[in-house]
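Q: Could you write out the predicted structure for this multi-component system? I'm mainly interested in how the pieces pack against one another.
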Amino acid sequence: MADNLIAPSILSADFARLGEEVVNVLNAGADIVHFDVMDNHFVPNLTIGPLVCEALRKHGVTAPIDVHLMVEPVDRIIPDFAQAGASYITFHPEASRHIDRSLQMIRDLGCKSGLVFNPGTPLHYLEHVLDKVDMILLMSVNPGFGGQSFIPSALDKLRQARKIIDDSGFDIRLEIDGGVNVGNIREIKEAGADTFVAGSAIFGKPDYKKVIDDMRAELAN
Ligand code: DX5
Ligand code: ZN
């Protein structure tokens, strides 16, 4: 399995100092930047768009930016994020009428593509598009807010997704998002995840490096 990646969710960062926060968390050892896009329609909250992604690039952020679209529809906004410097663009299958087309569009624009599964969304959406997916993102909370508790049934779903990926032979990352912290990251990894989003667990603490180091120590065991 590929290396474990730690992906701080900037949803819990101080938005008034976003550039500085992202630089700080990357200097503290984060691998990729998780960028939550909410539209107050697909999810009950409103966050940031392509302009902010572009602003982070202009600020000198070179790490991969992992754009998690919680918007509906998705196709209109995908080119804007590709243009703004997104590395991964993931979306929820419920938010696209044509998931094959949306996935293909992301790759055609030079980004890595991914599908996101809410806690209650079945994995069968993967069945005919696995060859077009670079990332599977499993939500371990219902999307919309940071700081919620990890839903334990996500562990079983991770095991199922891990088996689907391994059986397929494709190079697909398995990301988990919601309620991840130092105390549960090891069992999440053991269930099959290789990419770990954490918002409040990192940005809610004064010392980002300590949290990330503690997470890595758990992942190493
Ligand atoms: C929830 C977002 C998550 C969220 C995670 O809709 O997709 O990325 O920021 O936050 P924590 O780690 O605090 O659960
Ligand atoms: Zn997210």
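A: Regarding packing and overall arrangement: The longest strand covers residues 33-38.
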